Amino acid sequence: MPNQQQIVKSIAAVAKQLGRAPSVSEFVARGGIPKYFVFRYFPTWNEAVRAAGLRPSRFFARPDDMELLKGWGETVRRLRAVPSRRAYRLRGTHSPRTLETRFGCWAALPQAFRNFAEGKPEWADVLALALVPARKKKESRESKGKSFCVIQPERGQHRLLRERPMYGEPLDFPTLRHEPVNEQGVVLLFGMVAKDLGYVVESVQAGFPDCEAKRQIGPKRWQRVNIEFEFESRNFRDHGHPLTGCDVIVCWHHNWDDCPAHIEVLELSSFLKSLRRSQD
Prior knowledge:
It contains twelve helices and nine strands. The protein has helices at residues 4-18, 24-31, 35-41, 45-51, 65-79, 85-91, 96-103, 109-117, 124-130, 183-197, 234-238, 268-279; strands at residues 139-143, 146-150, 170-173, 176-178, 199-204, 211-218, 221-232, 248-253, 264-267. Strands 5-6-7-8-9 form a five-stranded mixed β-sheet. The chain has a two-stranded antiparallel sheet with strand order 1-2.
C-alpha cells in the first residue's frame, strides 16, 4: 500500500516522462497506483500535483473523439491485442465509460478505430491487430415455406433482449458476481466492505445525506461522518445536493475532478483493485 511520499514521488516521475503535470488518468496508466490511494491523502488531484512541486497543467477538459481513439490505439499497441474493458480500465488512458458513451458500446471500439485510422501509415501495426470484419449481410433462407434471416454477430456483441435485467462487468469478489451499474449496487457493495474500510454504519435513510456512519481515525478512536452514495461522483453535482452536510461521497466511479476539497471521495472500484492486489 503506497504512502503519501511514494505517491508524490510517483507523480513527479510521471511528470518527468510527460514533460508536464499529468492528469489523474495519465498518472494511473503510467504510475500504476490506483486513484483510491491518491484520494486517501489528497482531497483533489490538483492538490496532489501541487504537493509534488508541480503546477496543475489544466482543469478537466472533455477529450475529443480523436484523442479517445488514439489512446485506445496506443493501448492496443502496448498490449499487442485488442483489450477487454477490464484490461483497458487498468492499462488505458481514459475511462472505458467515456469511450462507451462516445462510441456506443465497448465492442464497437475496433470498428470506430478502423474508421479513424484507415489510410494513416502510423497506425498500420494497430490496424493489423484491431481489424474488424464487416458485418455479414442478412442471408434469406427458406424453411418450411417461411423466410428468416441469418446474421453473423461480431465477437462480444449481441442483440439486446428487451425487458431483461442488465448486469455490470463480471467481478472477482466473494458474494457479488457483477460490478454495480447503479447507486443501489454501490450501497450494497459498501455494506459488504465497510468493515475493511474502517467504517461502522449507524443509519441509512432516503433523504440527504444517505448514510450516517462512524470511522476509525486512530487506535480506539472513532468519528462520525455523513455519507452520500452515488454511482458516479459527478452525480452528486448533477443531483443538486448542497455542498454542506456531506463528508464523504461513496461511488463506484470517480469522475468529478472539481469536487470541493472538503468532500472526500471513496471510489469502490479502486478499493477493490487494491484489495485484490493485497491478497495476491
